[in-house]
Design brief:
By secondary structure, this protein is an alpha/beta fold. It contains eight helices and eleven strands. Strands 1-2-3-4-5-6-9-11 form an eight-stranded mixed sheet, with helices on one face. Bound molecules: iron/sulfur cluster. Iron/sulfur cluster binds near residues 57, 58, 64 and 121.
Amino acid sequence: MATEPKPVSVELKSSLAVVQDHSRHFSDFTFVYPVISRRSRGLSIGINVNPDKICNFDCIYCEVDRRIPGTVSRVDLNQLRDELAAMIHFAQDGGLAKEPKFNEVPWLTRDVRDIAFSGDGEPTMIANFEEVVQVVADVKREAGLHTTKIVLITDAAGLDKASVKRGLELMDVNAGEVWGKLDAGTPDYFKLVNRSNVRFERILENLLETARARPILIQTLLLKVHGQAMDADELEAYCARLNTITAGGGSIEMVQAYTIARPTPEAYATRLDKAELEAMATLIRTRTSLIVQTFD
Ligand code: SF4
């Protein structure tokens, strides 16, 4: 059997086209799409439970083009089950490696690192979150992917909903991980960057409560707004929020600090350079003693 050559290092450079391209549309699939993700260190099968593009945030850096209307508004569980099983089989069978988009990294396309709820909107807003998690867990188990993670990438606004909490408990026993967004230290900066009507305090409470029940990852996008990076006071306030979570009994496994990687609709939202991102990450490490990984 032919095997694809493996590089000595599997560090995923942001310049790779396949890393740049995080399209949530693949072939005629509605809910499932494959991406090569640096944060997952390989193949991540995305579950887009929000083809309707509904979100309770309106982040200034959001890549979702909401000028084009969304599609279906309810996740069809049977269709999701069929699509996910087919995508896993396609990857494991080597079909994905032959796709033009993936043929520059064929050695990464057979091992499903994670299955991630990450779509064109906020996954915790759907009505049947718990049932969706159950379907994903069932398909994962049937495919023998016992160590493959189920990742929820969330803005944290819906983590206090009863159905979401039950879904998180299902994730806990199926190699689940919660990656919660926190981009600000104050309500004003939260409003500026995330443009949400959800109360900032609710986001913080949800992160704390979720982190008390299982370790979570914090995802923080750092950027420039009209040429200005988050100022020193805001960064201190942000670090204090992380410390409040850990002091309150929450467990933060890691902070993933990253910046804009792809074009955004708001031209005034721009990326940090590597040195700026690293300097902020260093300060976060110093103030919180947390592990901080950067992705520029
Ligand atoms: S939370 Fe995610 S999907 Fe929603 S607006 Fe922000 S970046 Fe876009």
